[in-house]
Amino acid sequence: MRGPVHQGGAGLDEWLEKWREYFLTYYDEGGVEEKAAEAAEFARQFIDRALVSVSGGKDSMAMLHIIATRVKSSVHVFHWDHGPWLMPREVEREILGGILRVAPGAYVHVAVYSRGFSERAREEWAPWYEEFYKALEELTRRLKVRYHLLGVRAEESSRRGSRGRVADRVRWVEVHPLYHFTWRDVWAYIFRHRIPVPSVYYKYAMLLGWEKARLVTFFDREFEKYGSPQLDSNLSWRWKHNPTAQASR
Amino acid sequence: MEDLEIVFHLSSPISLGFPWVFFDSLLAHVMLREELGEKYYSLPTKIPVKDIPRPPLKYYRDVPVASVSIIEPAPSLQVFSYFKRGDHPFPKGRISRGSGFFKDFYLKAVYAPAQRVRFYATGEAGEIKRLVGKVSALGKERNIGFGFVKKVEVAEAEGEYGLVKDGLAMRPIPVKYLRYYEDSAYLAYKPPYWARESVELCAVPFTRVELG
Predict the structure, then answer these.
(1) A196 to chain B nearest CA, in Å?
(2) What is the pTM of this model?
(3) Where are the domains of chain A?
(4) Cα–Cα distance between A239 and B29 in angstroms, integer?
(5) Which of residues 205-224 of A touch B (CB under 8 A)?
(6) Which of A31, A68, A115, B19 is most deeply packed, by most CB within 10 A?
(7) What is the ipTM of this complex?
């Protein structure tokens, strides 16, 4: 193979195994179990009137596992599907499969971005937010829920840190059970409980480091100012063109 | 037409905008720059497809017989993060640096610490030698020092390896031209590589193929 590595080759498995050992050790030493128990207790007080938002990223998947296994299995889950031009179907299938495996008793509500089937979705992101909040608002009203549980962590950014663990957003109240988790805690929890996350994470983590690997929309100009499309072109080149008619692998 | 092996010796790591650099695209770039002179630097982002020069290469149907880059030693990608800030005179008063004209960029250059980049091609040897001599840097982010060329060597190759070598595709080849292919993806296979019209279901470089 003469192409660049970081594309799921043999080196990836070896590298992943090394890190798996590290995170499993950290799980005990870092007190991750105690943090998860505390997050579950915190979530419990809101769960009866809550909707759990799951993007399929590491934080929301860890949160979903904590809630579904320790608090309540029959939770309402909201997932936003960006459509094939922003979220390749292979990744989306992994996300939905992961949600169903982690929370088999959950009621999963999936809203699909109507413009996500057009290439323009990569260029124009304003309608995305509009449609997303509309769908979320409708579901909130229909289910008569008050709380939205999100996988937001204070460590992620100063803006997220300033939101606090509970944030009143008028239309609903945001609750962040994993607020005090670090990226190490989250990955340790994922490895310890074998939580399925999209495999694309590992390719990005190998190049960027675990703390910087994030699941965001692919080839999205919204993230151009962070250099994301450049990374996608190298690591996810298969999805650059024509993702609605992906070739088999 | 001669079978050629072109080796660029680098003095700095190569930054990549895609896993591979296309040799025919590189030649087209040099030819266009020669043709347009200084005007080359003030082109609109995407010029009409018909204006892209045709490199002096052999063609298999409409596929240039020119390989993609073979980076040596085998690339292990790295990331170089940097800020790109506007260097224009800022106006008085408040400006938005998060979006719009004065937007700041926190960019990531993906690069591979490489010593050599090898290509195979079949074409007019004299003209190809002349054109590659004008390549001072390869890959992306050349303006900040990536991919500097120390020396370029053009030698005769043992065979026509621009399309297939040892049973492996050396570039994207549309599957409609193949009897067998191991792996496929939607890829651009002819210049301009950014154009939607150039994208087809192709065999992936360095995977097993048989020409039809």
Answers:
(1) 26
(2) 0.87
(3) 19-197
(4) 25
(5) 207-208, 224
(6) B19
(7) 0.86
